[in-house]
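Write out this protein's structure.
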Amino acid sequence: QVRLVESGGGLVQAGGSLRLTCTVSGRTNTFYPLGWFRQAPGKEREFVAAISWGGGTAYYADSVKGRFTISRDNAKNTVYLQMNSLKPEDTAIYYCAADQTRVGGGASTGPYDYDTWGQGTQVTVSS
């Protein structure tokens, strides 16, 4: 059974940077897409970024495009989310997710396509 553990969240001032890390354990044959989602208080969970199993294709929400970068290291069973130029509206709990049932390449931007989730890490951006 796959387990995802996020780390790297914290409190940062607007304009600052954070790097989130998600480590995959259990079934470590990570030949599936991984994604990052976030949920702010009172709001629905929303897509942030996703990456194909080989790392060759990345997808971003318009709100983070140009500021966030997703990457993965399959040798380390890890996916990263580098967040730059952070804004107060980026404040949320960030979740890592795996889509183990996807067939073919690419990655989904829809949360319901992801079958395994981490516990989340809090990111707070102060103004």
